[in-house]
Hints:
Sc_DH/Rdtase_CS, seven-stranded parallel β-sheet, globular, disordered N terminus, NAD(P)-bd_dom_sf, single chain, SDR family oxidoreductase, SDR_fam, oxidoreductase, alpha/beta
Amino acid sequence: MTEQTPEQHIPxxxxxxxxxxxxxxxxxxGIGLAIARRLAAEGxxxxxxARNIGxxxxxxxxxxxxxxxVVAGKSDDPDHRAEVLETVTRAWGQLDILVNNAGVNxxxxxxxxLDPAAGRRILDVNLLGTLGWVQDVCAYAALxxxxxxxxxxxxxxxxxxxxxxxxxxxxISKAAVEQLTRTLAVELAPSVxxxxxxxxxxxxxxxxxxxxxxxxxxxxxxPLKRLGTPEDIAGAAAFLVSEDAAWITGQILNLDxxxxxxxxxx
Length: 266
């Protein structure tokens, strides 16, 4: 049996992202913040982005010293993306991981009542914003993302795979994100891996309208009898962007407490 030297990495240990640098969008709270915390806990340096600087600074205070940068701005704004990439370049000079978590859903109701302007906003952020981040990161030569063998993780939703009451167009946008993920995985191989996570209802402020005041009733349809937590998503995210998932690309991982297997809907 070969003895493990201190320099060698043991898959699955707490430092599996040591030396890696990540960008996590929409990371001032909820799933994005939980993912960013988990990546930092596993050794990564993380740049967190969101629209408002105040919540970002509050979130950053919880990270180990020297492990986090904050840049405020809109995820679908090319100038914001450029500022993030320049900031990461100045501070760390490399990028290994991109987590596209930022998303919006400004409407609730049937598709027959969808305001076209709201629909365009959803697509601009959830789909085109996600693609914009990928395009910009891959084109930014100073960070050498493709040369370093980067990992991209997109956030989808089980509403992409089954009709979801009240959030139909959000689910449609996430279905597009899932196909975007598969297409990018083929186009960017073999240098970059691209995967997605598709959560069911997770207890966050973003999803509060889907369970608040009736959590017991909603969770009863889940075989695991509870809703998800941001930490449930963060653990899967850390795995997919790590070398433990080195032969995984183009996949959509459902995180749903067994909901779809049981024939449930989002």
